Amino acid sequence: MQLNLNSKASILFRKREFGIFVFILILLLVFGSLEPRFFRSDNMSAILSSVGILMVVGAGQTLVIVTRNIDLSVGSTLGVSAMVMGMIARENQDFPIVGLIVISMVVGGICGLLNGLLVSYGKIPAIIATLGTLAVFRGVVFLVSDNVQIDPNDVPQGIISLSTTSPFRIPWLLIFAFFSITLVWYISSKTLFGKRIYAVGSNPEGAVSRGLSFNKLTIFVFIFVGVLAGLGGVLYTARYATINPADVGRGLEFEVISAVVIGGTNIFGGSGTALGTALGCILIGILSNGLTVVGVSPFWKACATGFLILVAVTIDNLVRKRQEEKFLLAIRNQRVVK
Amino acid sequence: MSQLTKQDARFKVPGYLVGPILILVVALIYGSLGSEYFLDPSSIVFNTGRYIEIGLLALALTFVIINGDIDLSVASTLAASAAVLAKLFERNVPILWCCVASIFTGLVLGLINGLIVIKFGLPSLVVTLATLALYRGLAQVMLGDGVVSDYPENFVGFDQRLIIGGNPGLPAPLALFIVSSLFFYYILHRSNYGIKNFMTGSNPSTASFSGISVNRVRLLAFALSGTMAGICAVMITSRLGSTISNVGLGLELLAITAVVLGGTDIFGGRGSVTGTVVALFAIMAVREALVIQDINGQVQDAAVGALLILTVLVPTIRSTFIEKRKRSKRFNQAKSTNMTG
Question: Which of A19, A301, B106, B175 has its Cβ near the most Cβ atoms within 10 Å?
Fold first, then answer.
């Protein structure tokens, strides 16, 4: 079979994201044909705004997983930054909104810095370090807030309006999500720095021996995901208007990692794209919303997500194996010709 | 392999136990400052009841982690098994058969984890992340938002029963834990399977070249972890006397913390049952000491998390300093020999 492997169409078809995109289309068709109301614009915007937080944090998590690390503490980081921001807003009601957002992101960045230092200079495996800080940051939320939740009337109207009012009829929540995905896309595919991140992820020893600083890159990605989790804290407050110490961001780490993995990022590092993560988030959003709209019991949602991860990873693995075989075959043929 | 080399005559505390033992001692002292009843043997013995499930899960997880795998789905497996138990009980199946079915469910779910990991060659972190959601979902589908209770009198209150009476006495969960830790100690450190476990974890390809069926070893560990989750489901149902769909939520993180705190390498190849057991008691002591001081549950978790980081961090820092000192010593020696020579 002779194929022009470099034609634009075939490049598109071979892309990992294309598979998820097709799957999203299929899901849309299925849900849409079962229940036409699914396609109404308010439902569509509900889906998108429900995955906004996931996208923001997932964008950062993608880079972390690309470097062979993992951040389990994102949910607690989001909690700390949202809580600190909420308490400042409660104390002085006319604090500028931009200032609040910056504070939240800085707090998230500090949490990320701590993770990064533990993983890079402390040489603790990321999964252990962030498992520890997952609990530590959650404890910090309680210590800071004294176990008192922030009520909706204490949250400034400006923050809440981030999820409702909008320039060009798109909520700010989505603009932030779009912005973070684009930022990660830009870093990973347009900058030398991004190439270095991928290099460290695909072969740490090799990258270090070529003169890349493993520690600096690791600290950067952790600060980055922390800052984005801080932004996620703002969006969480905007969407739910209540910050409960026990609930804020709880379990987010599993959702985010699921979305990133469904988006085709290899959990062993070295590959993964922002676009894939965005599509993974949207897929999760469509699935959980669609099941509800079609009238399936919401209890099936967790099952469906788990099943989706399994399917995505299995297909991914099969494709990867075939590509490797093809690659090896190509090398062998070249040798024979020579 | 400690059993292959000749044992030292002098007893030495292994390096990985220093951290947990220190934590245990400090927590006991701190707790006894808070209340004079803290060190009362009967209260200590009875307080263990709430931690035994974590301990049993951690024991089985030790095997999985030594193999170089991880099982994030233990708590969800527990929930699914508990849901099976509850549903069968509602259909008027005798409670004994419910328990058997629950343990069997755990075994099957563990096997499913293992089979997916092995047959498709997928990383266990992702697979068990997926089954974490999947099994929890199964529990939710089975139970909905309902509560199953009204278990028979002779089933409820397993943790209140005494195997050996008297004061302090030996409650049934603690007895079960002691027996199973001895059993697992034997398997891991004294049996063929244990050696295979360590070899699989430290270098899978070498292990398979030396004739070890790596996949079978890993599958068995997953099955073990599932079975333990099933047993814990029975225990937790008996202790709480009711079943809801989010039973045991977040237990997996505590169990993994216990395993890692006990010095088991998260990348496999190293670890011990003793470490896990000591770490479990250290966690328990810390939490109980903080309970006495009336400190919030989340902050207790935070303290355990911080200790987890410290126990891994301190040896690293220490070895870095020792290395630095050695290097500067060598440097100075070389300089002085250069000057004289």
Answer: B106
For residue B34, the model assigns a pLDDT of 81
Contacts B303 to A, Cβ<8 Å: 139
Cα first-last separation, chain B: 45
Answer for the pair B81, B248: CB distance below 8 angstroms, yes or no: no
Check residue B168 and report its DSSP letter.
S
Q: Quick one: pLDDT at residue A7? A: 61
Is residue A1's pLDDT more than 50? no
Residue B156 and residue B237: Cα distance in Å, rounded? 8
The beta-carbon neighbor of B121 closest among A246, A304, A317 is: A317
Distance CA B175, CA A205 (A): 48
Cβ neighbours of A141 in B, within 8 Å: 298
Min Cα distance B210 → chain A (Å) is 26
Selection from B21, B47, B63 nearest residue B200 by Cα: B63
- Residues A212-227 have pLDDT tens digits of 888 999 999 999 999 9
Residues 6+ apart with CB under 8 A from B72: B125, B128, B129, B132, B252, B256
CB–CB contacts below 8 A, A to B: 142
Name the residue in chain A with its Cα closest to that of B125.
A267
Minimum CA–CA partner of B131 in chain A: A306
pTM tops 0.80, yes or no: yes
Residues of chain A above pLDDT 90, percent: 36
A127, A135, A302 ranked by CB distance to B133: nearest: A302
Question: Taking Cα atoms as reference points, which of A82, A244, A89 lies closest to residue A155?
Answer: A89
pLDDT bucket at A2, cuts 50 / 70 / 90: very low
Share of chain B residues as helix, strand and coil, in percent rounded to the nearest 5:
75, 0, 25
Contact A299 B126 (CB under 8 A): no
pLDDT tens per residue, range B295-332 = 888 888 888 889 888 888 887 888 888 888 888 998 88
Domain chopping of chain A, boundaries: 56-315
Rounded to whole angstroms, the Cα distance separating B106 from B221 reads 13
Tell me the C-alpha distance between A298 and A81, whole Å: 30
Q: Locate tokens 């693995």: which residue?
A: A317
Domain layout of chain B by residue ranges: 42-293, 295-335
Separation of alpha carbons B246 and B240, rounded Å = 13
- Residue A155 is classified by DSSP as S
| Residue type present at position B293 | Q
User: CA–CA separation, A260 vs A60, rounded Å?
Assistant: 10
CATH class entry, domain B42-293: mainly alpha
Provide the β-strand partners of residue B243. Answer: B148
Q: Which residue has the tokens 């169409």?
A: A9
Task: Name the CATH code of domain A56-315 (choices 3.30.1150, 1.20.1070, 2.40.128, 1.10.3470).
Answer: 1.10.3470
Q: Single out the residue of A136, A121, A140 nearest to residue A73, CA to CA.
A: A136
Any chain A CB within 8 A of the CB of B146? no
CB A61 within 8 A of CB A260: yes
The reply to whether residue B301 touches residue A139, judged by beta carbons under 8 angstroms, is yes
CB contact under 8 A, B137 and A142: no
What CA–CA distance (Å, rounded) separates B220 from B214?
10
